[in-house]
Specification:
The complex is a heterodimer. Chain A is α/β, with parallel strands linked by helices. Helices cover 35% and strands 29% of the residues of chain A. Chain A has ten helices and 14 strands. In chain A, the strands form three sheets. Chain A has a six-stranded mixed β-sheet with strand order 6-7-8-3-9-10, sandwiched between helices. In chain A, helix 9 packs antiparallel against helix 10. Chain A starts with a strand and ends with a helix. The mean pLDDT of chain A is 85. Chain B contains 17 helices and four strands. Chain B has a four-stranded mixed β-sheet with strand order 2-1-3-4, with helices on both faces. In chain B, helix 2 runs antiparallel to helix 7, helix 7 packs antiparallel against helix 9 and helix 11 runs parallel beside helix 16. The two termini of chain B are 27 Å apart. The mean pLDDT of chain B is 79. The chains are: A alpha/beta, B mainly alpha. Chains A and B meet through helix 2 and helix 4 of A and helix 1, helix 7 and helix 8 of B.
């Protein structure tokens, strides 16, 4: 049984197609990354998952049942646009949001206090939101999404605007939650986050699904044809015809080869030309590489450049 | 409690507690009645007790009636002017004094040969410094009237006492149907105060609903809320919560007014009765519900307070219409026009309530107006909740009319 299942959903705003024929399914107990550049339809898809907007066509199922509002109590949602009542005290706010999710005041208060300790923001608890830093507000909202112990946690760009320390803290928390058996779905345009943490991914661009599946599955579809190289001296070996694309820095390069077997001959050639090799590493393509390749194949080079800028 | 009622309750409770706690609530609870009541009664008191204090000159060939007029203007009931008596032919000097702002005007009395004080009066020419100074010329006019009449009566051997009695205005006792003496001026001021109180509070709390929607929109909190509750629940909770704050405030005022009426009412002559209070609360509740439903739609359509300001007129215009209708209601509260405008749902809360205060309309009129308001509330809520449902998730662009119409069909 899939926790979230989208079947061929489509959403059009006026003349702009936000999501087009999106199909994906998320398995229970996994961490799922929804990946795509800004404006690609991530938020629109998430809003349809939680019934905030209704798809023009296609179906949404949650927890193996067709969508109904009664299932929303099992979902914790962190919207992309952060928002809290500015003049309200943090604890009151958390209790209020917990109560809306059906908790009693006592339970909401206990859990809110506990979570504030866990995320190291106990000092904020008696303050008004407007007195807090942006990062703290984000943590509060993160807590608000988790108070009712949801089975499915949906977070739209959870890391945006956080410093690395706090970003890591939230990521750790998400990993813990998945270990407890909860399903986590988050969207991001930062490919490196997905790479490290996700079991499953979906890449979307311009409202269309580029690819989806488990991380291993997606990566195994692509050959280990990337080489990271660091060298000093003669760089004429970089004119080798087996190199399809390259990104060069001073004394280093990231190369894409025609296939996996071209790596050894390339190394041999470099040594033969007397270049000093300090590092030579054959790697599988990163999710970012795969994504750019997909976008290029679907929409052409210009669009792929756009992805690189966003990522 | 069913889930949706509980959600409405939670939203309403939050709106209520957050608002009642603010300083703004406490300040407005004290200040609004102070300003309203103080304003209405203050203006009344000032107009009643204020005396004209202009400085004028009288240029006359005969000592009478100039001397009497001087006496009347300097020590009359409504005037305490400074008056100089000047011999004729000083017109130029006086004009110079006017230009130099030493005097506010001068009156020239020209006796004609056949003036006898009754059929043929002297000619009075008044040259004021500013022709807009109506108060001074009015005072002179009425003082002249008194002086001339008094002189004529004296000439015809009517005693001074009798003359004074004749010149006093006739007194009319206003007696209520229950036989008690009433001060019609006071009850009029009470009705007036209630009118403006309702006007202020309906506008204030209607705008509060719109502002609270915009606040949730700009702070984006509603995205979290909408993930658990329906837009309709959010809207209902908001209107109830903000409305309860308004009711609380009105309740405090009414309790204070009752206390004031029982304690100090007897001596000040101010009477506010239970009927007035009950109808005030009924019509306030209905009026607030109607206007806040409109305000909710306005809030959902806009993205900022500034944009809301531009749409304010939709709330203000019916209220202005009510204000414009006040003179009609005061002069003839049971005329056809008064009856019709006090049935218009957007005006009824204010106007029907005003009529109830000054001249009780037929029961069926009251029932009809309440019925019409209730129907309108449902109609407006139906439209507003649709606009709200769609508009709340839209930001950036202000919708145009065709788009808003599409929203009505859409959800």
């Amino acid at each position: 049984m899939a926790i979230v299942e989208l079947q061929n959903i489509r959403k059009v705003y006026d003349t702009k197609v936000a999501v087009e024929g999106l199909t994906l399914s998320i398995e229970p107990g996994t961490m799922f990354g929804l990946l795509g550049p800004n404006g690609s339809g991530k938020t629109s898809s998430i809003r349809m998952m939680i019934g905030m907007t209704v798809p023009d066509s296609g179906t949404v199922s949650l927890f193996g049942q067709p969508f109904s509002r009664s299932l929303l109590g099992r979902i914790g949602y962190l919207p992309e646009e952060r928002g809290l009542y500015k003049k309200m005290k943090v604890l009151d706010q958390l209790i209020f949001l917990g109560q809306l999710h059906g908790l009693s005041e006592t339970v909401a208060r206990q859990r809110a206090t506990h979570w504030c300790e866990r995320l190291e923001i106990t000092e904020a608890i008696g303050k008004k939101t407007e007195e807090l830093s942006k990062g703290m507000q984000q943590k509060i909202q993160f807590i608000a999404a988790l108070l009712h112990e949801p089975d499915l946690i949906i977070m739209d760009e959870p890391m945006s605007g956080l410093d690395p320390v706090n970003g890591a803290l939230l990521m750790e928390t998400l990993v813990d939650l998945r270990r407890e058996g909860r399903t986590v779905l988050f969207s991001t345009h930062r490919m490196d986050q997905i790479e490290r943490m996700c079991d499953g991914i979906a890449l979307i661009s311009r409202g269309k699904l580029m690819l989806s599946g488990s991380m291993r599955e997606v990566k195994s579809r692509y050959p280990r044809n990337r080489v990271n190289i660091a060298y000093t001296g003669d760089d004429s070996f970089l004119r080798n015809p087996a190199i399809v694309a390259s990104k060069r820095d001073v004394g280093a390069a990231q190369l894409q080869l025609v296939d996996e077997t071209a790596a050894q001959p390339l190394l041999a050639e470099a040594i033969a030309r007397g270049t000093q090799i300090t590092r030579f590493e054959v790697v599988e393509p990163t999710i970012e590489d795969i994504f750019i390749e997909q976008v290029r194949a679907s929409f052409g080079d210009a669009a792929a450049e756009g992805v690189t800028v966003d990522a | 409690m069913p889930k949706n009622l509980q959600n409405i309750w939670l939203i309403a409770k939050r709106e209520y507690t957050e608002r009642v706690r603010t300083k703004a609530f406490i300040i407005s609870t004290v200040l609004i009645p102070a300003l309203m009541g103080g304003g209405v009664f203050g203006v009344a008191a000032i107009t009643r007790h204020s005396k004209t204090t202009s400085h004028i000159a009288i240029m006359a060939s005969e000592p009478q009636p100039a001397r009497d007029l001087k006496q009347e203007l300097e020590h009359g009931e409504d005037t305490s002017m400074a008056v100089d008596l000047v011999a004729p032919g000083n017109g130029e000097t006086l004009s110079r004094e006017i230009a130099g702002k030493q005097i506010d005007g001068y009156l020239e009395i020209i006796q004609t040969p056949d003036s006898d004080g009754a059929l043929h009066r002297p000619v009075f020419n008044f040259t004021p410094r500013s022709s807009a100074d109506i108060a001074t010329s009015d005072s002179i006019k009425s003082a002249l009237q008194t002086v001339m009449t008094r002189e004529y009566l004296a000439a015809h051997h009517v005693s001074a006492e009798e003359a004074k009695a004749l010149l006093d205005p006739a007194k009319v006792n206003v007696i209520e149907s229950n036989g008690r003496h009433a001060d019609s001026k006071q009850s009029f001021y009470v009705a007036y105060t209630l009118f403006f109180l309702m006007y202020m509070v309906v506008l204030l709390y209607g705008m509060n609903v719109a502002r609270s929607i915009i606040e949730e929109k700009t702070s984006r909190i509603f995205e979290v809320l909408l993930a658990t509750i329906k837009p309709d629940e959010l809207l209902a909770g908001k209107i109830l919560g903000v409305g309860s704050v308004g009711l609380t405030q009105v309740g405090i005022w009414m309790a204070a007014a009752l206390l004031f009426a029982t304690q100090a009412g007897a001596m000040s002559g101010i009477t506010i009765n239970a009927t007035q209070i009950i109808f005030f609360i009924i019509y306030f509740t209905l009026g607030y519900a109607l206007y806040s439903s409109v305000a909710a739609a306005l809030g959902a359509m806009t993205n900022s307070e500034q944009e809301l300001q531009q749409l304010n007129m939709f709330l203000m215009m019916p209220l202005f219409l009510c204000m414009g209708m006040l003179p009609v209601l005061i002069t003839s509260p049971n005329s056809l026009l008064a009856r019709i405008v006090s049935q218009i749902p957007f005006c009824a809360p204010l106007l029907m309530n005003f009529r109830i205060s000054i001249a009780m309309p037929q029961p069926w009129e009251i029932a009809l107006s309440i019925g019409l308001i209730v129907v309108s509330i449902f109609a407006v809520l139906w439209i507003s909740s649709r606009i709200y449902r769609v508009g709340i998730l839209m930001y950036g662009k202000k919708p145009n009319l065709p788009e808003i119409l599409r929203w009505l069909k859409y959800s």
